[in-house]
Amino acid sequence: MSRQDTADPFDTFVAARYTALLRAAYLITADPHEAGDLLHDSLARVYPKRHAIRDPALVEGYLRRTMVRTHVSRWRRSRREAATDRPPELPVEPAERDLALEAALRALPPRQRAAVALHYYLDLSTAQVAEELGCSQATAKTHLARALKALRIRLAEQREEAGRGE
Amino acid sequence: MASDDWFEAELTHRLRTAAEGLGAAEPPLAELRQAGRRRARTRQAHRVAAAADAVLLLAGLGWGLAAGGGTAGPATGGWPSPQAGSPYRCPGATEAPGRTPNGADPTVSEGAAQRLGEGQYREVYSGTCGDSSHHAFYVYRLRGAKAFDQAVRAAAEPGVTVHFVDSKYPQYKLRELADRIIDDPYWHERGVVIQGTWALPDGSGVQVGVLGDLKALRPQVIARYGPMVAGVEQGAANSGY
Questions:
Q1: Where is this region: Disordered (chain B) (predicted)?
Q2: Chain A closest CA to B193's CA: distance in Å?
């Protein structure tokens, strides 16, 4: 890594947490290719404001919120805004993809999908999920309950289909 | 272990396994820095455009200029609604970037229109859709929103065409309804899952995604929320909220 790369604390943070953030983005989008796009877009959004974040410990939460809100906003805006000229690029393809899980997650609305990733993967409490989604705790619980119900139905259907195919 | 707990444990395990399937990756730091700087410049350009817009608007008011429906570029009187096909994308639009001959990016002007619409003009703004390949974008707003039209026109870069289309409802009202529907305990009490709701960007209403008997649920949803429900569909394929 060059001197220039380590000079900015934000770069150091990105270098250290890039894989973890990419994994979270993967579950938020349910698409490995969109994950890289979302993460890079969010990093580009946070980059100009990085000096305004006083507590370095808060950077990851801020970036995660940016990812979640950018993801929801992209759906709302029908992908109208591209933050960079660079085409999305996934640095690493997952070794073994759980396609059934990806399909079930993709069928969820983006807020529900983000809630699942935040709660069940990143282990955030429902209060923290609510904060990250920018909604009330009751609404966050609703998102989680509906997502869980839909995932249970879809994954069971997929299991049945797979069983019939064998 | 209860069935719910078992499923949650299985889901957690599958999510972790799936995520860990992504091996360690090196961040493209130089490119990310470059993208960040580009974004900072774009934001600065938006601020300048907004300031210029405010000045022009004040000047326009001072001079008693009246804004008519139309465009920043070519005139489009009576332009047909681009929503005849998919409500989510302008017809004929492609994902390909389409800069104008003078290098203007239509998405920058469209972004400025969105910020105006979501800010001081929220009472009249419904949404936009982009058609970069034709150096254009559409703005959906309530009929007669002359000040908003003028502000959008002033913020649009030269060479970018803005089409103004009359809409039925402002976006913020649709988002309020979208929130109300998805949080409504009425459906939960009846065992109905509202999978998602979407404030349509053309301002025509809220699209509702349900799980269950669509034929039976569609009239019930419309009866409960009225004409602001634009459609009811199965699942969440088109839900964005």
A1: 91-110
A2: 7
Lookup result for tokens 């929130």: B179
pLDDT tens digits for range B82-97: 333 334 446 555 555 5
Cα(A26)–Cα(A98) distance, integer angstroms: 12
Q: Which of residues 197-216 of B touch A (CB under 8 A)?
A: 198-199, 201, 209, 211
User: Between these two residues, B57 and B76, which has the higher pLDDT value?
Assistant: B57
Q: Last residue of some domain: A66, A97, A128? A: A97
ipTM: 0.81
| Residue ranges in A8-58 assigned as alpha helix (H) | 9-29, 32-46
pLDDT, tens only, B173-194: 998 888 788 777 788 778 887 7
Same domain, A63 and A131: no
Delimit the domains of chain B by residue range.
43-167, 172-234
Min Cα separation B212/chain A (Å): 11
Same-domain pairing of A160 and A137: yes
Question: Which of B7, B8, B13, B15 would you mutate first to test chain A, the one with the most A CBs within 10 A?
Answer: B15
pTM attached to this predicted model: 0.50
Q: Which of B165, B93, B174, B171 is closest to B136 using CA atoms?
A: B93
- The CA distance from A81 to B127, in Å, is 13
Q: How many domains does chain A have?
A: 2
